[in-house]
Specification:
heterodimer, A: 441 residues, 17 helices, globular, disordered C terminus, B: 148 residues, mainly alpha, two-stranded antiparallel sheet, 7% strand, disordered N terminus
């Protein structure tokens, strides 16, 4: 989890540098935008996977009473992940690219990534099969996230086969099919974590076994499999592919928002106060679900997509999802673990600085999100011929977006610093418990 | 994934069957997307020069700043129809000379020619953004300049 927090802290820094490079192309010219963008994307995606996976490795043995099938496999998973991550960063910095959207590292580095998911998948399924009770929905979500990551990551590499690579439309369609489902697979890991924490804070597993929860799961899976093509309305593929995506996209996210909303109203005050930080981050995630749902529905209508596609509105949607929803849930997971494991006399749970960081980050994100939408509208409705003129016309929005990015980074750094420090205290206390008592003098 | 619903609320949904059905539909759907409806039969197969240019495009990570069909980075313009809209000479001048926002990446003549061949190949696949289209009552778009 601490490595994940470092990844997010560094990923945001590269994001801010990229924002300034957007405005001032001479800014840190040695570190080209072709490097800062993949550094930002890969580090932030690492944050999502590290915290989601770290949480699963923690929750299963520690709270669900299931013995981890192989602690050694988990250790190797971490080591390979770390070594591969460092190799990818080195490739970016030295300018060695694979040049694919999101996977901009040389494809040979995908091999160890495949290996880590095999280790994780075997470990996960062999561990949860010890549980003889009917599975709560978060087991299903985590398992599906793992399986579909593996499938879609494989699909993202089909371009290596000439049959796909040499047909432009097929290449783009399969690429975005895989990316849409890949995002859905990590959402399965993250939303599963959110439901797990919600049930633990509420003290009842019932919400994770309800019809509504399973409806959410299957609707999410349906979207993961078939909802990707709203990214490709304007790519010349067959009409049925685009029409199906339009219908599927309309169902997106709704039930997830409802579950958290219902759960919130069922909580007693003492439960909210006991886990005040985790609760606060979960509620923020829920509010961002509704905001993003509204935007997702609008941009999934082909007539609106005509204006919003290929503009900063798509970025606003991606940022709202990864920061507003995923990051808020993952921060809830970190502070839930801290609150559960660290003695109350060491950490009372609701520090004013964490609260300040929380509000700074969320208010900044709202400004950041709005500026991106306005910039996107400016780009989408621009009717001049010159790209440079268009960029000049939206420059004020990009300036606000970059400044909001700076304050959001500062807010999240404050939160991360406390999370990092407190997890460190937790590790220290865990080591002290494991050490044998010192011999009597 | 072995349990049926078995929830305290007594859901009758068989989770395993539903999961299996969705997976089967996903496999059939993926096979369809891989083979039908995504081909580009109206253009010539990719040439060796364009294939090389595709590799150059990836080696220099051009997608970080540029887009095809609106997909990619936002720092530079979409390149889907740059050849037919601006001409090969214009594209060559930008690639070799750089601009205030795009550095001169120092490409060799062979790399520049390959890149131009690749951009010409992409240019034939369709039109982006659509120029001749009609909005329908149900929110869909009828695109007259869709090559399909």
């Amino acid at each position: 989890m601490r490595l994940g927090m470092l990844a997010l802290a560094a990923g945001m820094l590269f994001g801010v540098i990229g924002g300034f490079q957007f405005l001032f192309p001479e800014f840190l010219r040695e570190l080209l935008f072709t490097k800062t963008r993949p550094l930002h994307v890969s580090l932030v995606v690492s944050w999502i996977f590290l915290i989601a996976i770290g949480g699963i490795y923690f929750y299963l043995p520690r709270q669900r009473g299931l013995e981890l099938y192989s602690a050694r496999a988990a250790t190797w998973h971490f080591r390979i992940f770390l070594a591969t991550g460092l190799a990818i960063l080195a490739c970016y910095l030295s300018g060695k690219f694979g040049g694919r959207e999101y996977f901009e590292f040389p494809p040979v580095l995908s091999i160890p990534i495949f290996l880590t998911w095999i280790l994780f998948g075997v470990n996960y399924f062999m561990t949860v099969r010890q549980d003889k009770e009917p599975w709560p929905v978060y087991y299903w979500m985590w398992g599906t996230g793992i399986v579909f990551f593996f499938i879609t990551f494989t699909e993202a590499h089909l371009w290596l086969i000439p049959y796909f690579r040499e047909s432009m439309v097929r290449e783009i369609m399969v690429q975005w099919k895989s990316y849409g489902a890949l995002t859905g697979s990590w959402n399965m890991l993250v939303y599963g974590t959110a439901l797990y924490i919600a049930t633990r804070i509420g003290g009842s597993d019932a919400p994770a076994r309800s019809k509504l929860a399973f409806s959410l799961f299957f609707l999410g899976l349906f979207n993961l499999m078939f909802g990707w093509a709203h990214h490709t309305y304007l790519v010349p593929s067959d009409t049925w592919i685009r029409t199906l995506a339009y219908g599927v996209s309309m169902t997106e996210l709704f039930i997830f928002g409802k579950i958290i909303w219902d759960w919130r109203s069922s909580l007693e005050d003492w439960q909210k106060n006991h886990h005040c930080s985790a609760y606060r981050f979960l509620i923020a995630a829920d509010i961002w679900v509704f905001i993003n749902l509204g935007l997702a529905l609008v941009i999934s209508v082909p007539a609106f997509n005509l204006i919003t596609h290929g503009t900063h509105i798509t970025v606003a949607h991606a940022m709202g999802s990864t920061i507003g929803i995923n990051t808020m849930i993952l921060l809830a997971s970190i502070f839930y673990v801290i609150r559960e494991e660290l003695p109350k006399e060491t950490h009372a749970g609701c520090s004013g600085q964490i609260r300040a960081g929380f509000w700074t980050a969320n208010v900044s994100l709202a400004v950041f999100f709005t500026a991106l939408i306005l910039a996107g509208l400016g780009r989408g409705t621009f009717d001049g011929a010159s790209f440079q003129e268009m960029m000049l016309s939206i420059r004020p929005f990009l300036l606000v977006f970059t400044l909001a990015g700076v304050t959001m980074m500062i807010g999240l750094w404050i939160v991360l610093w406390h999370g990092f420090r407190l997890i460190g205290m937790l590790l220290t206390s865990a080591r002290q418990i494991e050490l044998p008592a010192p011999a009597a003098p | 994934m072995t349990q049926s619903a078995g929830t305290p609320e007594g859901s009758v949904i068989n989770n395993r069957a539903l999961f299996g059905t969705l997976c089967a539909a996903f496999i059939a759907y993926s096979a369809q997307v891989y083979t039908k409806g995504t081909e580009t039969p109206h253009i010539d197969p990719i040439s060796d020069a364009a294939r090389y240019g595709q590799q150059v495009f990836q080696d220099y990570n051009c997608i970080a700043c540029h887009q095809f069909y609106g997909l990619g980075g936002y720092m530079g313009p979409d390149l889907t129809n740059v050849i037919s809209n601006r001409g090969e000479a214009y594209a060559r001048a930008f690639i070799t000379g750089g601009t205030a926002t795009m550095p001169n990446l120092g490409l060799s003549d062979e790399e520049v020619s390959g890149l131009l061949a690749y951009l010409s190949f992409v240019d034939q696949t369709g039109t982006y953004p659509p120029e001749d289209f009609e909005l329908r009552w149900n929110g869909t778009v009828a695109q007259a300049d869709d090559p399909r």
